[in-house]
Structure formats: C-alpha cells, structure tokens
Amino acid sequence: MYAKSDIFLVTGGTSGIGKGVVLELNKLGASVVVIGKSIDKFNALKEVAISSDNLFFEERDLSLSDDLDKFVLQIAKQYGKLKGMVLCAGVLEILPLNANSLEKSKNLFEINYFSGMQLIKGFCDKRANVSEDCSIVWVSSVASLRGYSSLSTYSASKGAINSAVKSLAPEIAKTNIRINALLPGFVKTEMIDKHKDVYNDEFINMMEGAYPLGVGEVDDVVKPILFLLSDDSRWITGTNMVVDGGGSI
After folding, report:
1. pLDDT in tens, 177-236
2. pTM of this prediction?
3. 130, 81 in Cβ contact below 8 A?
4. Exposed/middle/buried for 191, CB within 10 Å: 0-12, 13-18, 19+?
5. Using one digit for the tens of pLDDT, what is the confidence trace for 63-72?
6. Whole-angstrom Cα distance, residue 80 to residue 78?
7. How many domains, in total, are found in the chain?
8. 83: CATH
9. CA nearest 185: which of 17, 10, 1, 60?
10. How many Cα atoms are found within 13 Å in the side-chain-facing hemisphere of 189?
C-alpha cells in the first residue's frame, strides 16, 4: 500500500496499459499525475477510479520533447517530489519500407524514445524525486527482440529503450533510482483497436494459438509494472523484463 504523499508520474495514462497502471496505483492509495492530451479521457478515468482526488492531469504533447525535463521539475514543484515514473506513452506505426520516410521515423522516435529520455532526465534531478527507493519503468515491446514485417522503425525505437535502460541503470543507481524496461507481447488494448485492418479477429485468433499462455490482457502487464515500481524489486535494475505469455520463446 502507498500513502497519498507517494506521488507517481505516468505517461499515456488515459488508455491501455497506462490507464491500468494509474487505476492500480490509485487503488493502492498513491497519488498519480497523468500526462496526456485528452482531458475528456482523463475525466472518464476519474469516474472509475476509487479515489479521484488523488489523480491529477497535465496536458502535454510528447511529440515535442524539448524542455520535458523542465516540465517534470514543474510537476514536482506543484504536486510534490516524485517516488516513481512509468513511461507508457507510445505510438505504433505499421510502416513498410517503401511507405516510410525520414519525417515519419523521426516523429516515431520523438514520442517513443526521445520524450522518455527527457522525462527521465527531469525525474533524476534531485529537485524532482524523493531521493530514496525511487523507480522508473519504461514500457518497451517484444517487437524489439523479434522480427516483424513493416515494424522496423517501431522495433528500433523500442530497442533503443532496452539499450538506454542498461546504460542508465548504473549511472543513476548512485542517486537511489532504479530503472527497468518492461517488454509486453501482444496485449488487447485500444492501440489494437486502432489498427483493426491488421489486427482483425483472424489475426487475434492466430496469435492466441502462437502464445503458449494466450494473448495478454492489460492486467497481465500492469502487475509486473507495479512490482518493478515497488520496494519488492529493490534489488532489480537495468533489466529488460519480457512479459508475453511465452510468445517470444
């Protein structure tokens, strides 16, 4: 359980895995600052939260990573120093090589990678965190480990997360901050609904057969994230934790 004074920052917290993380932290008593683009989605989230007065919203477009480190400092000044951060925001672009462009690739990396690095930089400033038992969880993907057609840029952006986490871990450990990446497999979220032309019922049934434990639900990923945030994982840092129902074996 957490106290109301335990404050977490979550990006992408109004849908999918991020929403699940926010609701679970809220259920455990923590305060959560959600970074997103839609106040309507945030208000809908508050309606199903156990304690809506512990939830706060900050609107920010993560396709613009400039000054996001300073943005985190502003959040800490307004709400209090942060205990943890979960980076769930990301975009999935199905881009065959002949349909890709430098502009599209840069935009995808801006959201999936560069914005996260800037947020981490801000969080690791001693003015932003509680300086004891802090944890960052950055959501990557098993697409960074396997080859999937038309996902080269997306996979590369997630692979960058995996590598960054390993290098950041020893650097920030001296400031009592842990960082880990979590690599989900195929999970039923709003992102899947957005690409129904590809992820149709036939495709989902195929994936059910390919995953030894079946296709995942949001809660299957949320619980490991909560573990990595908690003091129960105090001796774990720099890992790329695969959570995919055995799909990558």
Report:
1. 999 999 999 898 776 666 566 667 777 777 777 888 988 899 999 999 999 999 999 999
2. 0.94
3. yes
4. middle
5. 999 999 999 9
6. 6
7. 1
8. 3.40.50.720
9. 17
10. 25
